[in-house]
Amino acid sequence: MTASDVLLGNDDLRVEIHAGAMTVTFTRPERLNAFGAATSARLAELIRAAGDDPRVRCVVITGEGRAFCTGADLSGPAIAPAAAMEAVNSYVRAIAAAPIPVVAKVNGPCAGMAVGLALACDIVIAAESSYFLLPFVGIGLMPDAGTTALVPAGVGRMRALGMALLGDRVCAAAALAQGMITRVCADGALDAEVDGVVERLASGPQQAIRATKRAINAATLGELGPSLDRETSDQIVLLGTDDHREGVAAMLGKRKAVFGR
């Protein structure tokens, strides 16, 4: 194995293997790393492949530029609602099922389905300037990507409802205090902090690490699968509503949405 292997991602992803870690980086900084269904599916494939690759002992997911990821790219081509939901759910399921640890390196804003992406990970390390946001109601939708299970599991029902119904933004420090994430560090220290965690995971006892992840996920993520199913069925309906069309048009037009009753 060479010191650094660069693998095939797609136009929205850069994938590298180095020192026992596969790092997957979203590479659309001009769109704050928002991405579509094809990238969702490719991300799931990469995570599944990492679990079978003897070179890889953990996965790191991060974003290029000033954002981690701001969720779905609403300016992209239309896709059937069922296919869109299946693509989103694929990477959440892949992270939870991966036999190796997955680390979210949250370097900036984390919004929409990216909150589910981050919280499905086993360790979440955030820069102090980052934040977490569920903006779904503002475009006539409900939270998805497993967030109806993952957010309450971290912060409790009341805080989760504040994020989901009111669009409350949660800064990294508050997310740590509320139990949503693992660590917060200064922006300039994020790389070193994640590198240190990766080194510990990569050099640790692999059978014990895998068994630990499997046991804790089995004890705590029992509602994730049913939540993904509920989100899918309800979101497919909401994606076809006038409120959703109005919400997207208002967002893209930078105006206030006017929803029906």
From TrEMBL:
Superkingdom as given in the UniProt entry: Bacteria
Database matches in CDD domains: crotonase-like
Name of the protein: Enoyl-CoA hydratase
Family: Belongs to the enoyl-CoA hydratase/isomerase family.
SUPFAM superfamilies assigned: ClpP/crotonase
